[in-house]
Write a structure and sequence with these properties.
470 residues, alpha/beta, 3 domains, four-stranded antiparallel sheet, 39% helix, elongated
Length: 470
């Protein structure tokens, strides 16, 4: 049999030859590529469980290294707060209708690389940058882990290390304006993962001068943390065999600024906040210890409203001196119910043999008399700060903070006089800063109206509180 005068056997022979040649080429090219990657493409892999992951990813996006790519992931959210509100004109009539949708359409989307390998240039050097995700099974369900794979043509990993270092420098600059907050992963995801913490959440750092608190108390806590974080202090602790950690208890009435001061301190000292909700029923003693072990060093651990958690309500309290039965024994859930953490688990996590170092622990409570002595004894809590209701000077500062322009270096004389009058019309140690701020927010554009209405507001507020107590 022949086709166009050529025997069929010849076609088969040529086809077989081309197939063998193609397979040989594919195998050879694969081996050559493998050898090239091994000897000429130094590689560094960064996992999503590490703090570097999002810092490097944001740096790559900022450098626009993937703009020409044809496969991207679009996001409407960012890991840091947007500055787009600053673009809104300040002379907009407050009585006019502001269309939020029109403003939203003007916000650019964020584009990040898809899960594949990209070729790009950085500092005049060729890079292959890839993202990957892996799905793996856990005892309860499954979880995903993400990686950034950085490769550079050459003999050394130095260009990659330089890129990572630049991303770290960028992140440090970002921390001057933003405070990073980390939350634990949910129960299914934190089981078996290399790190039990979720990705960072960034919030604008709160300036310390916006926290309404007694100046002496504010200065005292600032000096304490500044001294603790100094490198010489760390060496001093190590030389004397003292665990390098510091504990603080913020206690006082609700709305007096305990959380606000914690956020301001974290921003001032560039500390990442690790926020743990002790009442989470899925959080076990082992989970808590692991969370403490996987924290960045140094960092701040924030445990808010610990009096609302039954595990810390002990038999005695050094502040109240009253005795009662421990509520730990009152909790007796069945075997199928998540029991949460125990008091002993919390104590071991805070300052046990396996606890983390470089930690600034801040616990806040509205009712310190409910806390167990074991939790707030010396050594676990080094400094106790009582937050009282605002006095005259704090009332003045609160009024000035609300109505002073951020561009003014000095307080205008008229505003200072109004603040003095405002503080005079309110009784000291009567209203919380949160209550007064709520009143001022309703009149944020009219200081005169706030001054005129504050006396009647105070009377109505006191009457409502008296009625509530009766």
């Amino acid at each position: 049999m022949s086709i166009l005068g050529i025997k069929a056997d010849a076609f088969l022979s040529v086809g077989l030859f081309l197939y063998i040649a193609w397979m040989t080429f594919m195998i050879a090219s694969k081996n050559i590529w493998a050898l090239a990657q091994r000897y000429f493409l130094p590689t560094i892999v960064i996992g999503s469980y590490d703090d570097l992951y999002f810092g490097v990813l944001d740096y790559l996006i900022e450098q626009r290294m993937f703009e020409s790519s044809r496969s991207l992931i679009a996001r409407t959210t960012t890991r840091v707060p947007r500055d787009d509100w600053n673009k809104v004109k300040s002379n907009i009539d407050p009585n006019s209708k502001f269309d939020l949708n029109d403003w939203k359409l003007g916000i650019p989307l964020t584009y990040e690389p898809d899960y594949q390998t990209y070729f790009c240039w950085h500092d005049g050097k060729p890079f292959w940058i890839g993202r990957s995700k892996e799905q793996f099974s856990l005892l309860e369900g499954s979880a995903r882990e993400f990686n950034i794979i950085l490769k550079c043509f050459g003999w050394s990993t130095k260009p990659i290390k330089d890129l990572i270092q630049r991303s770290r420098e960028r992140e440090c600059r970002m921390q001057e304006a933003y405070t990073e907050i980390r939350l634990p992963l949910d129960k299914k995801q934190r089981t078996g993962l290399r790190a039990p913490w979720a990705g960072k959440i960034s919030r604008r750092s709160r300036p310390m001068d916006t926290v309404i608190l007694n100046a002496d108390q504010k200065s005292r806590i600032q000096r304490d943390i500044a001294e603790f974080l100094h490198p010489n202090t760390r060496r001093w602790y190590y030389d004397r065999g003292i665990p390098y950690r510091r504990g603080h208890l913020f206690h006082g009435a609700a709305g007096t600024g305990k959380t606000s001061l914690s956020l301001a301190l974290a921003g001032q000292f560039r500390l990442t906040i690790h926020y743990i909700l002790l009442s989470d029923p899925t959080l076990t003693d082992d989970d808590l210890i692991r969370l403490f072990q996987e924290m960045s060093d140094p960092c701040m651990v924030l445990l808010e409203d610990i009096d609302a958690t039954s595990i810390v309500r002990g038999r005695t309290s050094t502040i109240s001196g009253k005795k009662r039965e421990s509520s730990i024994m009152e909790i007796n859930p069945g075997p199928e119910v998540d029991q949460g953490i125990s008091l002993s688990g919390l104590l071991n996590a805070v300052d046990g043999v396996a606890s983390a170092e470089g930690v600034v622990l801040i616990m806040s409570t509205n009712h310190p008399e409910k806390l167990d002595d074991a939790l707030i004894r010396d050594g676990r809590v080094d400094l106790k700060i009582e937050f009282t209701l605002p006095r005259k000077e704090e009332l003045r500062c609160l009024f000035i903070r609300m109505y002073r322009s951020p561009y003014e270096t000095a307080v205008p004389a008229e505003l200072d006089d109004m603040a003095e009058a405002f503080a005079t019309r309110l009784s000291e140690n009567t209203f919380s800063a949160a209550e007064i701020q709520g009143f001022l927010l309703d009149r944020k554009n009219d200081a005169q109206d706030a001054l005129a209405a504050v006396s009647q507001w105070a009377k109505d507020k006191m009457a409502a509180k008296a009625k509530q107590k009766s």
